[in-house]
Every structure is written in C-alpha cells, then in structure tokens.
Design goal:
The protein is built from ten helices and four strands. By secondary structure, the chain is mainly alpha-helical. It has two domains: about 150 residues, no CATH class; about 60 residues, Alpha-Beta Plaits, CATH 3.30.70. The longest helix has 27 residues. Bound molecules: iron/sulfur cluster (2 copies). Keywords: 4Fe-4S, Electron transport, Iron, Iron-sulfur, Membrane, Metal-binding, Transmembrane, Transmembrane helix, Transport.
C-alpha cells in the first residue's frame, strides 16, 4: 500500500513539474525544447513503455481535473464515435502536427503549434471519454505506440492470482485491458500509458510493473 501511494504521489509531482515546464517553454518561446523531452520519452518507451504519457504529457495532466469534475458531477462523457475508432486518425494528426511545425519554422509565423495540440486534446477530454484522444487522435501516441512495442518492461497482471473483478478495466483511461478466459485480465503493452491507475485499483495487488 505504501508503494502504491508513493507511485501515486510521484506521478502527480512529475505531472505538475512537466506541466509547469511546458507552459514555461511556451511562455519563453523555447517550445522546441519540448521536442527534446518528447524524444527522450520515445527512446525511453523503447525499453520501459510509455512513461511519457502517464508521467510527462501535459495533455494527459490536463485530463485529470476534467475527469475529477465529471466524477463529482456524476455525469458521463460521450463514447468514442465509430468514425473516430480508427488508428489512421492519429497518424493524420501526426502528419498535421509535423506539417504545422515545419510551416511555422519556414514562414516564421508565430503560431503556437504545441499549445494548439494541448488545447485540442483538452477539448476532446471535455466532451469524450479519455480513450478517444489517447488511442485514436494523439499525434505523440502514434509514435509511442510503435516504440513501446519493443519495450521489455511494463504493467503485467499475474494471471494465476487475478480474481477477475474488473476494477482495473473500469479505471483504465485507454481501454488497454482485455478479458481472457476465466475473466482473467491482460494488459496490451503498446497502448498502455503507464499511468498505474490499474495497479492502484487492484484489490488483490496482482498488477505489477516489471519484465514482460
Ligand atoms: S493498463 Fe493500467 S497503466 Fe496501462 S493505461 Fe490502463 S490503467 Fe493505465
Ligand atoms: S483489478 Fe486485479 S484482480 Fe481485478 S480483474 Fe484487474 S487484475 Fe484481476
């Protein structure tokens, strides 16, 4: 339990620090530094999974208060429309994002591309469930989902101990947990955001981060 709390608070601190850094870079005009941070996140995800998503990404951090407001209000967000349930959209978003950066660099236009992506992400979180942006529309997620395929570490369910209660599935923001025979759960590595919410919610502590 102490470990779970430690991870929970460490993640909050990490998210606040990186959110502050992000807006600091926007404010000072050094947004290209964020590309370096993202690059480190991609390299890290080749080995350790998508810590960038769960611990660094400002879009994911902004989803926290939105989720809290919805939880308090007892209202539900919309499900992902079927037209958006296609992997191709995040690649389209990535191309649009890169084109935006190149256009700004070549024309000298003062367009805050990074901030626009964050605001679009937050806009989707305001209306749709978290999965919509994370899984289908995030340009960063497109790259990270490929890189994290190679990761040798991630969140794993101990199948022999899982009691099939489904609490992990209820909290997973990216619908990454699937049900196997006998109600045992399994985490799909490449879409896992390393947010540890499943680990926090498991009543029998059978979800651990380790070698997959
Ligand atoms: S499987 Fe767990 S760590 Fe991965 S995204 Fe879902 S809740 Fe987060
Ligand atoms: S919360 Fe834990 S016990 Fe329940 S289904 Fe998920 S992994 Fe299994």
């Amino acid at each position: 339990m102490a470990d779970k709390k430690g991870v929970y608070y460490s993640r909050i601190v990490s998210q606040i620090i990186f959110l502050t850094v992000f807006f600091g870079l926007i404010w000072t005009g050094f947004t290209q530094v964020w590309l370096v941070i993202f690059g480190v996140g991609v390299i890290g995800s080749l080995f350790f999974g998508r810590f960038y998503c769960g611990w660094v990404c400002p879009i994911n951090t902004l989803s926290r208060p939105i989720k809290w407001v919805y939880k308090k209000s007892g209202k539900n967000r919309l499900k992902t429309p079927s037209i958006l349930r296609k992997n191709v959209w995040r690649w389209v978003a990535l191309i649009a994002f890169i084109s935006g950066i190149v256009y700004v660099k070549t024309t000298g236009l003062r367009l805050p591309v990074f901030l626009i992506v964050v605001l679009i992400g937050a806009g989707f979180f305001l209306v749709f469930g978290e999965e919509t942006f994370h899984k289908y529309l995030c340009p960063y997620g497109a790259i990270l989902s490929v890189a994290s395929k190679f990761a040798r570490y991630g969140l794993i369910v101990d199948k022999s101990e899982c009691i099939g209660c489904g609490k992990c599935q209820e909290v997973c923001p990216n619908n990454t947990i699937i049900t196997l025979d006998s109600d045992v759960r399994y985490i799909e590595d490449r879409e896992c955001l390393n947010c540890f919410r499943c680990e926090e919610s498991c009543p029998v502590d059978v979800i651990k981060y380790g070698k997959t």
